[in-house]
Amino acid sequence: MKLVRVITLIGVYLSLTVAQAQTKKTSSGLPPKSVSVAQGQVARWAGNCLRCSLEKRAWAAVNGTCYYPVDMDMKPGHYTISRRTTGGKLETATLKVAAKECIQEDLANFPKKEYVTISTTNQARATKEASLVNPLIRFQAKERPAVFDLPVGKPAHNLPQGEGNFGACRTLNGQPRDRHTGQDYPVGVGKPVLSVGNGRVLLAANQFYSGNAVYIDHGNGLISEYFHLKSFSVKPNQTVTKGQSIGLVGETGRVTGPHLHVGVRWHGACINPGFLLIDPSDMPGVN
């Protein structure tokens, strides 16, 4: 009889322990939050946000929403993101990054031979230009406040569909080259190029690879890039407004023909600019 009583007491104790654990889980809130994105995309966490962070990097929210840009080369896996609400609450979630297949693009019979076999002089020039650009587009711990809204404006009137070559793995006459960091739009030569948002010009210069190029800082770590222009009509430190003409479409630099190349760096991440042209509610959201 004593043995039966002991077994019964053990059963009651285990039942109470399980019930307490379930009650504790219920009182702690909903299951862990998460969001899934592919390389080059942007995740969104809406709702009274003040401060956002991804691993060890942190930045201010934009109009009460946290955005998490994922670099096209970010290693697939799970990452911790967090947000601080206006009420002071700290919340965390899991960012699940999936690999995006790299489109293979071979530029055969490239017309500009100086970009196929690069001279020592041009190599030195490109290296010097990269040393000026890289500090401008990398992540900055201190960023200017955002002066843009999402979605951003279109970089050209009657913007056609992009050519879908963001992040393409390229070869030039069969020789491997760096991945394509922007989205190309088939806009005709001489057409006006428009700033996608309010901002300040960081750099406007002729570069070996990018041709006539303009870089604009829109605050909150968002940098827009416009390459291969026929000409540009802005200068460094100039303030520009959304929709303002900053130059004309051309074919300068390493190109096979005229088009508009638009690139975006956000908190140092190279992302597909097309994701900033859509309604933010259509971005993958934390839930």
What does this molecule look like?
- By secondary structure, the chain is an alpha+beta fold.
- It folds into two domains: 66 residues, Immunoglobulin-like; 179 residues, Glucose Permease (Domain IIA).
- It is built from two helices and 19 strands.
- Strands 11, 12, 13, 14, 15, 16, 17, 18 and 19 form a nine-stranded antiparallel beta sheet that branches. Strands 1-7-6-3-4 form a five-stranded mixed beta sheet, with no helix packed on it. Strands 8-9-10 form a three-stranded mixed beta sheet, with no helix packed on it.
- A hairpin with a 4-residue loop joins strand 6 and strand 7.
- The longest helix is centred in the N-terminal third of the chain and has 26 residues.
- It starts with a helix and ends in a 16-residue tail after the last strand.
